[in-house]
Amino acid sequence: MRPGVPQAENMDDHRLPKAPDYTTAALTMLWVNLLWIFFVAWAMLGFVPTLVLAAILNHGISRLALARSA
After folding, report:
1. How far apart are CA 44 and CA 14, in angstroms?
2. Distance between CA atoms of 39 and 47, rounded to whole angstroms?
């Protein structure tokens, strides 16, 4: 640190604060969005096509998880 320069204005100090963890908030919003999308699909298409959509999404997520683990 240079003398006479306040800590907040010291450009030589490149330490960043720890980033907040937004994982829980992101997963909660994903669940909320999927919920209303399924309700709209159920209202517009019926129950069986909504189940097919859920099965397709489940298969896609499983394939992504498999690809990430490999």
Report:
1. 54
2. 10
Written as six digits, the tokens of 67 are 């690809």
Enumerate the domain spans of the chain.
18-69
Written as tens digits, the pLDDT of the chain (70 aa) is 556 555 555 566 678 888 899 999 999 999 999 999 999 999 999 999 999 999 999 999 999 999 999 8
Is residue 28 within 8 A of residue 40, CB to CB? The reply is no
Question: What would the 3-class secondary structure string for the chain be?
Answer: CCCCCCHHHCCCCCCCCCCCCCHHHHHHHHHHHHHHHHHHHHHHHCHHHHHHHHHHHHHHHHHHHHHHHC
